[in-house]
Amino acid sequence: MKKLIVLTLLLLFVMPVTASKIFAVEETTQTGIMDAGNKLCPVSGDPVSGNDFVIYQGKRYGLCCPMCKALFLKEPEKYIAQMEAKEKSSAPPAAVAPVVSESEEMERDMEQGDL
Prior knowledge:
This protein is mostly helical. The chain is built from four helices and three strands, in the order H-E-E-E-H-H-H. The chain has a domain at about 35-90. It is flat, with a radius of gyration of 25 Å.
């Protein structure tokens, strides 16, 4: 009985998540519009609201407010370039492995008994 209850609860929580992903894919394929996935408004650089969007060349761009739509549509290429530059510069830098000299590596190998 416990297994049945656990299985039922699991299905109740998993199915909506799976179904929403399926419907999102269907919506994209039906309309041909893809979400740009921007987190910053192309016009102001503020975080997107989640309520205001503009569609340009098959992509849906998030905006911070309805007033940015008219500005974006006047010069979309300019604002897209600005947005991409801001998002690129705000991305965390890639991890870089520390540089180990040959002598340090040899010393470490000797301590571990590899030589």
